[in-house]
Amino acid sequence: MSALPADINAMLMTLMAGLSSVDNTTRAAAEKSLTSEWTKKARVEMLLIFLAEQAAQGETEAARAFAAVLFRRIAIKSPEETTSVTDRNLGYTSDAVKAQLRATLLAGFSAPQTNGIRHKLADAISELAKEDLPASESWPELLPALFAATQGADASFRESAFRILAAAPELIDSSFVELVLPVFTAGFDDANDDVRIAACTAFVAFFQNLPKKAWPALSPLLPNLLNSLPKFLQSGEENALASVLESLIELVELAPKMFQPLFSSIIEFCGMVSKNKELDAAARMAALELLTTFSETSPKMCQKEPSYTASMVVQCLSLMTEVCIDDDEAADWAAADDADDDDEPEYDAARQALDRVALRLGGACLAGPLFQYLPQMLQSAEWRERQAALMALSAAAEGCCDVLITEIPKILDMILPSLNDAHPRVQYACCNALGQISTDFSDVIQKTAGDRIIPALVSKLTGASIPRVQAHAAAALVNFSENASKDVLEPYLDDLLTNLLQLLLSPHKYVQEQVLTTIAIIADAAEKKFVKYYDTLMPLLFNVLKTDTDKEHSLLKAKCIECSTLIATAVGKEKFAPHCAELIQIFAHIQEQTVDEDDAVKPYLEQGWGRVCRIIGADFLPYLPGVLPPLFIAAKATQDISLLEEDEAEELGQNEAWDVIQLSGKHIAVHTAVLDDKASAMDLLRTYAEVLKGDFYPYVQEIATEIVMPAFDFYLHDGVRHSAAMCIPALLRCAIAATGAKTSPEVLALWALAVDKLFDALANEPVTELIISYYTAIVVSVDTLGPNCLSSTQLDAFVKAVEVNMTDIHQRISARDAGDDEYTENVDDEEEEYTDEEILDELNRAIGSVFKACKGAFVPGFQKLVPIVAAYINDSNAAIKLAGICIISDLLENTGTDSYHFKDLFLNAVGEGLASSDAAIRQSCAFSVGAAAQHGGEQYAQFVLAALEPLFAIITGQGARSDENVNATDNAVSAVAKIARTYGASIPNLDAVLAQWVKALPVLHDTEAAQFAYVFLSELITSGHACVADVAQTVDVVIQALVHAAIAGKTAEAVVGATKQLLGTVPQAEAMAMLGRYPVEAQTVIQKWFA
């Protein structure tokens, strides 16, 4: 009996019949009715009650299944009355309706049902249970019913109960831990495989939801959980084994050290599974992934377990031999156009696993076990082992760089013979290894082994190699050339270009595409040395660009665009000038023909236009009206978000153009490809603004208001927000150049828009790496606009954002310093683009820029930062303390006597910091003392005079001029000069101090410190002070500063003028001898200044 009125029930029965109709017209009308009539606020409760009733007690199994699925979809759908994708219809239903739904669904779940229907009811119950937590209060009948179901005789009941617990782990709070332990124990030992899988999945979800203090009670269950694994293996349930291993991976990510007592057994079992070629690929790769995850979450535990690295190396090498199964000649592989077409999941998984393990454990741990096998595998009669050895070296090279970079000659001795292996796939693997080590050992390998690597790779570009080897050798040359100087490449350019040009005639499109990329990168690296090849190459590229091609060849044309513009960039505007107009005409024609949004030419053409603009500068202006419209369309793209059904989510998740995320039980698809293009378009607009300056101003208002400012709200794409921040300084400079004033109404209006967005983003950005982008934009903008560019309101907003960021960073670093606990290791996240220390560097730069621009006006804002700054300068972590001292340096340098109000905050910390074991802290404290002496006035006299002794201790300490300490030493020397200049009359032994100071020169590395030190030296010379009586010594410290470019411009002129005066006090022959004693390379500088 329905709880709904009969007429409503009848209408909804008709609606459901229509929704499930096979007739398209009928079904479309029903779907329209569902959307326009029944999902509205006034009727959605009735719809949910009806669907719950039909799901629980519908007349047919098909009706119950359809109703259960539709119930869940409508329940989690966002009401039309809200704009939030996280809101759900269930959240807007009354308490009475929720109670009705709970009773109906639970009754249906407990009634006799088929397994499929009970699963769907379980899913519906899970969503309903998530509302109004804790469920023990809102739905007290649920947990007892589920616990009873896990003990029932029907396996379907047991599995579905665990299914609900897995989907809604919040149902069981920590107070139920003791009650739930026997439930999970029974689930792990269940005779039914599906129940064991569901129990394992539920346990992981439950564990993830509990606070760490509750974990000890659960750890005794691990042996039972792991004991279920061999049962799946023995019963041949490979899919079940894979599912449980995947659940365990989530647990290892959370609490890896909890597995330590069982670690060796896990290694042994997973090794057995991954090496068993009779098993399904999913189970083997899940076993490998589980072990790999241990290396990323608990590297110390892996390093301490002797069997771990040995087992991982053997597993990976074994799996990497599983290529070209039943195809010894690798004919299918050789015929493939693209490496992405190779369907070798085990091989790919092993390569990635070895790479990840190497990155976490390092060469000291992994290189030994790996090289125990590589030499003998390279000599194997089986080609698969030879190629596996080379690909393993490629995979491990980056992580093992700390050990292998000193062994480059031996590595090349070992692998170069494989370039001439009888099997093409081994040749390919050798090209891959050479390319990878050219990247991973970059700079060193280019300087020391170019004469071995370049000729070797060039030899594989000839017709003697199969096309895939030719293309891969060309790709490896890209790796080498990207990090090579023009001088390294020059001797080989003839051979390189001769062979690459020959390959442009290849009948294989993918070879031609790769060759164009290689030529482009070589041109980019060779710069002006590429000029001699320009006249040969450019006409060839023009011919391809002028040819109308089908979509299949569009990437080839795209590569030609890239190659032609990189070559033009390399040779420069003058050489490119005769071809410039023609290339622009060709690009314009291509742009007219490029109508498909997904055409490969489109992004390459946009970047090509940008390079042409950089080359010809203001001459590009006439072409902007044709270039900008498609760029504006891309830059104005909106966030394309779609709500998906589960099957749609799975399908779209395989599409690289989309990201699928889960939010509030919903699958949400984000069209990331469109947003990638948006970010690229914004970057190009920034390029045009930077190059064209004031001439680009007519477009600034539209870009700022319609593209850049809205882009800060693109919360689903980090790149868009980064590009928005980076655009702001460029747009400001355009406005300044066009209006002729930093304070013009147009500039101030643009800045008012931008600064509000930047400060709001700083305070609320969830992605820590992006904070550095915002601070960079603030630094450049404030430095560009200059004095008093921030109002008191804006300064308040800046202070609030800085306080939020400093607090968050302090908490993260403190948590990291707290070290490991019994469950987890403190592991640096290698994937993070920036560290907290780097973010602090940029934060310090921003505070410095604001202090410089606003001076005393920033003091009230700084007052609000005092508590967090105090926490920083008194912290034991060196990076945190340094950041705090740097803020004090900016305070002292820019607010002068006003800074003394905060003396109690920093005087002790700065004084003590002069004796710090950390060189960066000593440097910053020395600078702070100098700033107090130079800008702080008489009130700092006692403090700075007391600092003389520790400053000289820095200057004369052991290793004062080492790379680590030299900047601290330079700043200490400069600080002594500032003290002597300001408070000389208060220094009892001033002459002795100055004599000691002169002996501390030269200052060569910190140019800011050098500038003041040498100006002070010139004053001492001019005044004829006795401390500069040793003419040869004084002249020498000046010559060293000039040769090292530590001083320049007007400072150098003043110092040289004083030094000439000093040289005039000695006979000319003696003066000439002093200047003539320096080596040849220094004489050019001496001639410039003392001729």
Automatic annotation (TrEMBL):
PANTHER family to which the protein is assigned, alphabetical: IMPORTIN BETA
Importin subunit beta-1/Transportin-1-like TPR repeats domain ranges (all copies): 469-637
InterPro entries the record matches: ARM-like, ARM-type_fold, IMB1_TNPO1-like_TPR, Importin_beta, Importin_rep_4, Importin_rep_5, Importin_rep_6, TPR_IPO4/5
Subcellular location as annotated: Cytoplasm; Nucleus
Ranges where the IPO4/5-like TPR repeats domain occurs: 113-269
Organism: Babjeviella inositovora NRRL Y-12698
GO cellular component terms listed in the entry, alphabetical order: cytoplasm; nuclear periphery
Any one Gene Ontology molecular-function term assigned to this protein's record: nuclear import signal receptor activity
Pfam assignment, any one: TPR_IMB1
Major localization listed first in the record, in broad terms: cytoplasm
Protein name as it appears in the record: TOG domain-containing protein
Keyword Translocase belongs to the record: no
